[in-house]
Structure formats: structure tokens, C-alpha cells
Design brief:
Largest sheet: 13 strands, antiparallel
Number of strands: 13
CATH architecture: Clam
Strand order of the largest sheet: 6-5-4-3-2-1-13-12-11-10-9-8-7
Number of domains: 1
Distance between the termini: 54 Å
CATH class: Mainly Beta
Helix content: 10-25%
Radius of gyration: 19 Å
Order of helices and strands: HHHEEEEEEHEEEEEEEH
């Protein structure tokens, strides 16, 4: 797959001279073209991902849904039980209580943080300028033996616990393939506030007209939080809004 991406990059390089003065905008432009182009990305209305995740020594099947409207949901099969680990309808987040097996709404702070972070489908760099976001080339770093460009994507500030905080992510782009192999975020609330969360992506494969990572690992303090091996991606499926909404029967029970 990497050879395929390098081939695309070589074609682009015929008309674009990359040098030590490369800019963040050039990196992002080349990246978006390499993975399939902005038109193909913009045509994605939703995505369904089926995968196996490794967590605490267990292998757990998961299904994740995402839409261009900002909706998200992740279900898992945990010891024979179907559990919604996370769901977001665009305004409110909820999940399944592991002990009671009942759905519970997230608090307003959590929902607000989710809303600030879900505008990246299908790719955080698609249309970033129109959204008023900025990119900057921070420098060059080595990530697990691979030379990368470190690019900072800065979004609008968000309010956390009545305090306005910066909202940015670092992306580390392979200097040969021009794809991100790691992204770095910083926890904005809770007991791990301020700690770096690093997500590693690899094994990019073509899905329709877009290249997507089939191996994803998140680490904090050098320790693996979870790792995901994707079985399949499906795009532009028939997904109803009810899939992401807090269950109606639970709403009735709350009255």
C-alpha cells in the first residue's frame, strides 16, 4: 500500500518542488490528495467500522458509526453482552452503565467536549480553512524510527469547567508517504487532565476511493490504552438518526 501512496506522491512531485521550506499547507494538500482527494472525502456521508480491539488482555469485537452530521456511536460485545460504549446524537452523549446495563446520559460538560471534537469527519483537515482553523509546521521529529513533519491543527477554543482553553492537535506526517502515523492530543478534563494521548495509525488500505488505517493504537505515558485491528469499513450506509439518540424507553423511565 505504501508503494501505491509513494507512486501518487511521485506524480504530484512532478509539478510541486518540495524543499526544506515546505509549508504546512503543502503537507496537508499532498496528504489529502494521496488518500483519495477532497472530492471523494466530501462525498462521504457516514462510515461504519467493524474491528477487534485489545484492552486489558481481552479481545473485544466493536462496531463504530460516524456521520458527517457529527453523530457517533460505538458498540462492543463484552462477555456476550451488547454494550454501547459511547453514543452522541450531535448534542447529547450517552453510554451503557456496565453494572446496571442501562443507558445513561453523559453530563453537560462531557457532551460539550464531544461536540467540540466531532467536526473532523471524515478527515480533520478537510475544509479546515473554511471552518476558520489554522495549520502550522512545528518542526521535524522521529516517531518510532520514521522521519516525520510535525503539524499543528488549531481549532476554535473551547470552554472546560468555565475556563477557555486552547483546542489543538499535533499530527506527525511520514516524510515519504505524507500520511499521519501519529496524532497527539492533550486531555482537557478529569483526573488525567494535561496528559498527552498519542494515537498511532498504520496499515493504510484502500476502501472505495479512500485510503484508511487498519491498525490503530492509543497510548498514554508510554502504555497502550487500547489497540484496534479493523476488519472492514463501509461507507454511505443507511443510518437512521434513532441509532444515535438516547433510547426513548429510557426517556420515559426518567419521567
Amino acid at each position: 500500500m505504501k508503494k501505491a501512496i509513494l507512486f501518487i506522491f511521485a506524480a504530484i512531485a512532478l509539478s510541486t518542488t518540495l524543499s526544506a521550506q515546505i509549508t504546512a499547507e503543502e503537507i496537508i494538500g499532498t496528504y489529502l490528495e494521496n488518500i483519495g482527494g477532497t472530492e471523494n472525502l466530501a462525498a462521504m456521508e457516514n462510515m461504519v467500522l467493524k474491528a477487534q480491539t485489545q484492552a486489558q488482555g481481552m479481545e473485544i469485537p466493536i462496531t463504530m458509526y460516524q456521520t458527517a452530521k457529527g453523530q457517533q456511536r460505538m458498540d462492543m460485545n463484552f462477555q456476550g453482552r451488547e454494550i454501547t460504549q459511547m453514543a452522541f446524537d450531535g448534542e447529547t452523549g450517552w453510554n451503557t452503565n456496565f453494572q446496571t446495563g442501562q443507558p445513561e446520559k453523559m453530563d453537560a460538560e462531557q457532551s460539550k467536549l464531544m461536540k467540540a471534537q466531532v467536526d473532523g469527519f471524515p478527515d480533520p483537515f478537510l475544509g479546515y480553512e473554511e471552518k476558520g482553523y489554522t495549520v502550522s509546521l512545528v518542526g521535524e521529529e522521529e516517531v518510532e524510527g520514521t522521519a516525520t513533519y510535525k503539524v499543528k491543527l488549531t481549532k476554535d477554543p473551547i470552554t472546560v469547567q468555565d475556563e477557555e482553553v486552547e483546542n489543538f492537535t499535533y499530527y506527525y506526517f511520514d516524510q515519504e508517504a505524507f500520511i499521519p502515523i501519529m496524532q497527539e492530543d492533550f486531555v482537557k478534563a478529569g483526573p488525567t487532565k494535561g496528559q498527552a494521548s498519542r494515537t498511532y495509525s498504520s496499515d493504510y488500505q484502500e476502501v472505495g476511493n479512500i485510503y484508511m488505517p487498519f491498525s490503530i493504537t492509543q497510548k498514554m505515558n508510554g502504555q497502550t490504552v487500547f489497540s484496534v485491528k479493523v476488519d472492514e469499513y463501509k461507507v454511505n450506509q443507511e443510518l437512521e438518526d434513532e441509532l444515535f439518540a438516547f433510547p426513548a424507553e429510557s426517556e420515559e423511565g426518567d419521567k
